[in-house]
Amino acid sequence: MSPTPEKQHPVTVEERLFSLVLALIATQIGLTKAEILSTVQGYRQRFQVGGDNASLERQFERDKDDIRELGIPLETIESPDDPGSNHHLRYRIPKGLYDLPADISFSPDEIMLLKLAATVWREGSLSAESRRALTKLNSLGIDSTDPVIGYAPSLRAREASFEPLSKAMDRGQVVAFQYLKPGESAPRRRVIAPLAVVLHEGRWHLYGADQDAGATRTFLLSRIVGPVVTVPGTIAGPPAADDQGQRALAELDTLWRAQVALITVEPGSDAAVRLSKRGTPGPAAGDVELHYTDLNILADELAGYGPEVLVLNPSALRDAVVSRLRHVRDAHTPAPQAEEDMDR
């Protein structure tokens, strides 16, 4: 029985360039064009052994130009046995030229921001396909002179649903999970074709096609309860377009801009210091206007400041904060003693 052909999945331009850069950094002696086209994610899916790869070679030439335009030094090495031959040229990104200049340094705040930005990369940018491609490079005898993790930021996504959702997108699968919305007493099963997982306002969101509603929806990963499972016998439909992530972020940004809370903070308090940095001054002294995406998440945060914050509007946010404060009060109020106990 002949082996089943590997199912093809779309590879974005960003992932292809990232995989190419990663492979060229990981080699000391460089890679030939044939090695790149046959092993690197984004090329190998279309590479034909002994076939016509002219269009793939033209794509590689365009990608080389894109990499150089990004300011990444791409070096070519001629074969000493065949000087002047393009066929045996090797390509690499020398680590020494890729390092930051010695006179550039970052303040602690700048380093913190760079580390926060890194959360987008660690789990989301390098797919299982890219990792597999690096393994294939090693199988050719091309050793990595530096660990790949040195070029991938070290912060990880905390939600357990991140990895299975990313795998489902890679494979074009439909998934199901239990989703608990605020105010509901029990989670509800959702069946979704994942289109993108994005980071917005410090929280991971799933953007996908809701199979029951027949429309796209956005879900907070932190509200997914239990495991994410694939749904057998379902088809996700045509491959997702490359711009689904941008579309999801644009919708979240639109929602964030449209929703504004007006609060008053206690001068000199922790709330005043933290919230004033995120918001803009309101109409009166001590007022702060805050944009937000999710009312319940903001209510949780504001309730944590206790008497340091007063919500002026919207009323739904004020009611949500008051409800949380009352819940805390009731949870810490001793139960009244029975009358017979009081008589003893």
From TrEMBL:
It holds the Pfam family WCX. Signal peptide: none annotated. It comes from the Bacteria. Residues 287-327 form the WCX domain. Residues 162-225 form the WYL domain. PANTHER family: PROTEIN PAFB, PTHR34580. This is Transcriptional regulator. It comes from Cryobacterium arcticum. The lineage of its organism: Bacteria, Bacillati, Actinomycetota, Actinomycetes, Micrococcales.
